[in-house]
UniProtKB/TrEMBL annotation:
InterPro entries: Group_II_Decarboxylase (IPR051151), PyrdxlP-dep_de-COase (IPR002129), PyrdxlP-dep_Trfase (IPR015424), PyrdxlP-dep_Trfase_major (IPR015421), Pyridoxal-P_BS (IPR021115). It comes from Triticum aestivum (Wheat). Its cofactor is pyridoxal 5'-phosphate. The modification N6-(pyridoxal phosphate)lysine is found at residue 226. One of its GO terms (biological process) is carboxylic acid metabolic process. The keyword Lyase applies. Keywords: Decarboxylase, Lyase, Pyridoxal phosphate. Belongs to the group II decarboxylase family. This is Serine decarboxylase. It comes from the Eukaryota. It holds the Pfam family Pyridoxal_deC.
Length: 357
């Protein structure tokens, strides 16, 4: 085993010396991070949604995303994004968002686009139109305009290359936008910028056209193991927060509401949560001071918490811990029993002495 690894290492050292053709920055030093290799760090898909899994790096992920968002002119609260496993995944995600915004949209991409773009078209069963390129490798906007006019009835989803794989050509984003607007596609297009290769370099090139969310683009992705030279494949994906943002917020509310309901029941407190709702109904706390402190709205023998985007798992935990602690004093040693609220929440949700089990 040790021999196999040593041979492999020698071959990697030798091959690293003679490496020119692929866009990977092999010049990195990540020693400081090696101490973190002993942990199963996992952000479970969305750095903005809290979960019970504590071995995560969400604070760092969000820090990285904030940096990229600013690079492309979006404020903290205007974007959603995540660290992907590569530039390919960023393209798959960006094009998917485009298709969600325009379900019947046609995907346009220049012939020199990365194969992951055409793979996305097949995966999502989208109509895909290949656009010619200039000798430089840039998208040919004359051909693009002609093809748009052939499909005037369908919205357009466009992959714009910030650095093509083979020729390193940067598509003219401004001309793409102008072509779309001139062809009558105003407000009927979605632009994904594939910045896997140069997305991170163009902001630092003075004469380069700016990739910026001040322009009508929907998403940008970059590859993390190319210019940055991350030792394992990774990437960054940033999308404008539009209704996708709302969708995320809604999902967060529903998830946190489930969390609250489950924890209430685990603590032996009667609770109900309707399927499409983020309102958790539970037994009215016996102490009016507690009710006032948490500003609970009560009706008869029930109370509720309405989980909105600002209600975090942390806040719910504080609330639950206090409630559980206080409740022991309210119903101590069976002197006084917890109330039956089956009439309000149904027998299956009631955990009074009669209905529990
Ligand atoms: C490399 C590359 C990709 C894919 O990035 P990976 O991180 O290798 O998945 C996508 N688009 C372009 C233009 C690329 O050069």
């Amino acid at each position: 085993m040790a021999g196999v690894l040593a041979r492999y290492r020698r071959s990697l050292v030798e091959r690293t010396k003679h490496h020119l053709g692929y866009p990977y920055n092999l010049d990195f030093e990540y020693g400081a991070l090696s101490q973190l290799q002993h942990f199963s760090i996992n952000n479970l898909g969305d750095p903005f949604i809290e979960s019970n899994y504590g071995v995560h790096s969400r604070q760092f992920e969000v820090g990285v995303l904030d940096w990229f968002a600013r690079l492309w002119d979006l404020e903290k609260d205007e974007y959603w994004g995540y660290i992907t496993n590569c530039g390919t995944e960023g393209n798959l995600h960006g094009i998917l968002v485009g298709r969600e915004v325009f379900p019947d949209g046609i995907l346009y991409a220049s012939r020199d686009s990365h194969y992951s773009v055409f793979k996305a078209a097949r995966m999502y069963r989208m109509d895909c139109v290949k656009v010619d390129t200039l000798v430089s490798g840039e998208i040919d906007c004359a051909d693009f305009g002609r093809k748009l006019l052939e499909n005037k009835d369908k919205p357009a989803i466009i992959n714009v290359n910030i650095g093509t794989t083979v020729k390193g050509a940067v598509d003219d984003l401004d001309l793409v936008i102008e072509t779309l607007e001139k062809s009558g596609f105003k407000d009927r297009f979605y632009i994904h910028c594939d910045g896997a290769l140069f997305g991170l370099m163009m902001p630092f090139v003075k004469q380069a056209p700016r990739v910026s969310f001040k322009k009508p683009i929907g998403s940008v992705s970059v590859s993390g193991h190319k210019f940055v030279g991350c030792p394992m494949p990774c990437g960054v994906q940033i999308t404008r927060k539009g209704y996708k943002g709302f969708q995320k917020e809604v999902q967060k509310c529903l998830r946190n509401a489930h969390y609250l309901k489950d924890r209430l029941k685990d603590a032996g407190i009667s609770a109900m949560l309707n399927e499409l709702s983020s309102t958790v109904v539970f037994e009215r706390p016996k102490d009016e001071e507690f009710v006032r402190r948490w500003q609970l709205a009560c009706e008869g023998s029930i109370s509720h918490v309405v989980v909105m985007p600002s209600v975090t798992v942390d806040k719910l935990d504080t609330f639950l811990n206090e409630l559980v602690e206080k409740r022991v004093t309210w119903y101590q040693e069976g002197k006084c029993q917890s109330p039956c609220i089956a009439a309000d929440v149904g027998q299956e949700n009631c955990l009074c002495t009669l209905h529990k089990t």
